[in-house]
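Checklist before submission:
- one chain only
- standard amino acids only
- sequence pasted in full

Submission:
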Amino acid sequence: MAAEMNGIYRELAAIRHTDPRAQGAQTAIRKWFDFLNRHFGNYTPEAFKGLGQMYIEDSRFTKNIDQFGEGLATFMAAAMAEFANQTEE
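Returned file contents:
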């Protein structure tokens, strides 16, 4: 599970300077959504969006995520919000 999680973080870190609304970013963040739902319960799109906000509002999350690349938490939060908005429509 840790290897899969770290792999997704690395994939997202590699594209963190792109538009979080772009298809590549949305495809990658979908992997994160699916991973969380497989291993940690049932996240609705709205809960997923809220989790993304926590990534940037709680410095403990930010520090942990940004170890894969500075700015990753901010990128993920934006991509997660876009994913949730698209999924809820």
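Reviewer check: The chain has five helices and no strands.
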